[in-house]
Amino acid sequence: MLTIQEVLQDKISLDIESVDRVYLNGYVKYLQMAGGVINFIREQKEMPIPSPKVLYEMTQSYHEAVQAFADRAGLEIYKFKKQEDKEKVAKAHLTKFAGKHGVVLIGKAQEKTNAFSGKREKRPDQKVWFNYTRREVNVTHYYFYILDENFGLGFIKVSTYLPFEVKVCFNGHEWAKQQLRQAGLEFEALSNGFAACAAPNRLQEICHSLSAEKIQAYFDHWVDKLPWPLTESERSAGYEHQLSIWQLEVSRTQIFVDPVQGQALVETIIRDNLDLGRPDRVSLLFERRVTKATPSEFHTRVDQYGVLPCIRIKYKHSALKQYFKDGRGLRTEMMLNNMADFGFNKGLQNWADIVTFGYQCNDRLLAQLQLSQDCFVPLTEVRQLGQPTRLDNGQRAAALRFGDPRVMALMAALARHAHIISEMTNKSLRETVAQLMGVDPAQYPSAKMSYDLRRLRLKGLLERIPHSHAYRLTEQGLRTAIFFTKLYHRIFQPGLAALIPDQSFPSTLAQALSTVADEIKALIDKALVSMVQVSV
Questions:
Q1: 398-419: buried (b, 16+ CB within 10 Å) or exposed (e) per residue?
Q2: Contact (CB, 8 A) for 378 and 391
Q3: Under a CB-based contact definition with an 8 Å cutoff, are residues 80 and 89 in contact?
Q4: Strand order across the 129-148 sheet
């Protein structure tokens, strides 16, 4: 079995690993417990009795602040419909956005969150007091879609009710694109990634340089710019949002030199590696011990996106997947949906270790992939064989068309001579080619053989031995001669013969195809009759 690294040699034009989509959770450390909420109300709001009225007033005040911000920016607050693609809406607004950075869209939606609610408590001393519990509620969330100079388009989502949970979303590929633009480096983008770059090594350095410090600076910058539910004095007192990694995708994209054959290769990879979901192989991919008690379903799932398959290997809440990206390359992607699955703390300070682990999982998947054969046959070479081409030096090479009797005889002659340790000359090949064509050698003179030798040499199938009139097969010539010959004699000849509807001895294939043809004809006749009846 071949490894994918062996197969992909010289078939890849760009190989880039990068952070992909990132979702961060923002939380206020001292507002996660009921006691912290009571302390906040008493100390920051100066309310001796922690009344829930304060929470309502904070929510209303935040609504007003967002509206005032939108008015100053000349924005209308967009109300997202249920199940609406928010990213699509934001990109539509981006096309109308004139600035280079700023808030592109403010949207709002009713969504579930865990928030605090207060309940009056009866005390023996008859004094009024309130206790707080967390429960799931449906509240308004504001989506601030931001075009950032360094991070591109992303959003910060803010809940309007205490403890004011925050979500931050951006894309590592978009961050890298912004850095390339600032550096003046040209690149060709995928829908989410890179297809080509003028400086691939520099691109890889940029992708690897995204750090926790840069992400924190991005968040802090927009906290200061956006309307925020907690005041500056409250944040200075320790009630600022801290970031943790909620979801993270780490990808490796390998762009094929020949995308058409690349798709065939990806489909072969999926077909030959359906056992990756076995517990023993999952253990190797994720470097985790797998036992009967491990809470996960172990299987390899193949999803279908349109006509393109995607292989997915699951471990607990996380997964590895691999698919054909945008008709250009092989995308290997580690999706970390719970950092605790792999023993990591979710804090942003662990960013570097988590990202490195994701890259290692992608590498281990590529190392585990095996193929029964190298199915990557460059179609450009096949096309060049079957049509006239002109070399860089101006020489014209005639076509070698598959199925042409003379071409097939040439290929068969080369295949016969491949195992003979001797030089190939005009004379030694000419008799074999004439015999294979079934003609008298006089009908295939030396001039025709010279013409054929020349086109075989210009197509790269033969090379002339220096200071002689003899030739030898190239590696490409050996592969092509054997492939053409075996394909023609083992598939095309018997296959085409089987199609002939010989009434005396019809083949199984001919009978099956005749049945299909009859059924299709019957359906067409029936449809035509129905059309005539309707028109009448």
A1: eebebeeebbbbbbbbbbebee
A2: no
A3: yes
A4: 77-79, 102-121, 129-148, 152-159, 166-171, 12-28, 241-256, 329-336, 318-325, 308-315, 300-305
Mean pLDDT of 4-24: 89
pLDDT at 503: 56
- What kind of architecture, by CATH, is found in domain 379-498? Orthogonal Bundle (1.10)
Six-digit token pair at 259? 């995308």
Domain boundaries, the chain: 1-24+171-209+242-377, 33-162, 379-498, 500-535
Q: 9 CB contacts (<8 Å, ≥6 apart)?
A: none
Give the helix ranges, DSSP H, for 246-329: 259-272, 279-286
Q: Are 425 and 416 in contact (CB under 8 A)?
A: no
State whether the Cα torsion 248-252-256-260 is positive or negative: negative
Q: What is the DSSP string of 111-165?
A: EEEEEEEEEEE--TT---EEEEEEEEEEEEEEEEEEEETTTEEEEEEEESSTT--
Q: Please state, in angstroms and rounded to a whole number, the distance separating the CA atoms of residues 250 and 319.
A: 11
Tell me whether residue 284 is exposed, middle or buried, using C-beta atoms within 10 angstroms of its C-beta: 0 to 12, 13 to 18, 19 or more: middle
pLDDT in tens, 337-352: 999 989 999 999 999 9
Please give the model's pTM, rounded to 2 decimal places: 0.73
Q: Determine the residue type at 510.
A: A
Q: Report the relative pairing of strands 77-79 and 102-121 from DSSP bridges.
A: parallel
Tokens encoding 285: 């991919």
Q: What is the pLDDT of residue 381?
A: 64
* 495 three-class SS: helix
Residues near 264 by beta carbon (within 8 Å), at least 6 away in sequence:
375, 376
Q: Is the pLDDT of residue 292 over 90?
A: no
